[in-house]
Amino acid sequence: MRDLRFRRATRTSVLGTTALIAALSLTACQSGGTESAGDAGDSAASGTSAVPVADTGKAAEKPKSGDSGSSSVTGSGSSSGKPPAKPVAEQRQGGGSNAGGSATLPTCTGANTKLTMTAVQRPINHMLLTATNTGSKSCYAYAYPFLRFGEAQAVPQVTEDSRPQSVVVIAPGESAYTGVMTSSTDGSGIGGYSTKDLGVHFQDVEGGSTGTSVRVPLSKKVYVDSTLTVTYWQTERDDALMY
């Protein structure tokens, strides 16, 4: 009987001690104490992670659309298979058209114009070459005419100051003009000679001759020397004679 009471007392003491330890452990957890080795073992046994929830949340997030790692990014090097758009300036560029617009209008030649050469009183030693459009379409008179007086081996020089801002257009029935200084007024020219023979070549858009020379009749012989010069084609008569 005494032994039974002793065992009950011992069991009661052990249970009391266990309860006391459990109470102390609960108090430590509520006050922010560190997790004991036993608690850590319990957590591992239950399958939960010891990593804080805040960290596991970030690691589990999927990349959002538009992030640098997303395959939906477009632009140069895009995986969509579409080439990048061309710049606006490149889209607006056309082909086959030149500064003079030769893709739409013909070049002035001896076939669609009539050429005349006349002497003028002012300036001295000057003449006026006129090209009148005899065709049904406007034509472009590029740069200046190539002149050949008599048996000349080279065409006259051009007065660069007379260059117009754009290519001269001659409408049907209208005219363009070139001023010609035949010789110097101070006798500085050399190699002078007189001729009644004049051939004229129009230029094309590339600066070459359009082909066959146009024979232009002269009313009398004209004296020319090494100072012979011409102007660019002009739309006004007075502009051609001011150089």
Q: Number of folding domains?
A: 2
Give the distance, in angstroms, between the N- and C-terminal Cα atoms: 149 Å
DSSP E strands, number: 11
The major pleated sheet works out as: 5 strands, mixed
Class derived from helix and strand content: alpha+beta
- Text of the CATH class of the largest domain: Mainly Beta
Write down the overall mean pLDDT: 71
- Percent of residues in beta strands: 15-25%
Radius of gyration: 51 Å
Q: How would you characterize the overall build of this protein?
A:
The protein is built from 5 helices and 11 strands; from the N terminus they run ααααβββββββββββα. With 243 residues, it is of the alpha+beta class. The protein has 2 domains: 45 residues; 128 residues, Immunoglobulin-like. Strands 1-2-6-11-4 form a 5-stranded mixed β-sheet. The chain is globular and about 45 Å long.
Write the layout of secondary structure elements.
Blueprint: H1 2-30, H2 37-46, H3 53-60, H4 88-92, E1 113-119, E2 126-133, E3 139-149, E4 157-158, E5 168-170, E6 175-181, E7 193-195, E8 198-203, E9 214-215, E10 222-224, E11 229-230, H5 237-240
Parallel strand pairs: 4-11
Antiparallel strand pairs: 1-2, 2-6, 3-5, 3-8, 6-11, 7-10, 8-9
Keywords:
243 residues; alpha+beta; Immunoglobulin-like; 2 domains; 4-stranded antiparallel sheet; 5 helices; 22% strand; disordered N terminus
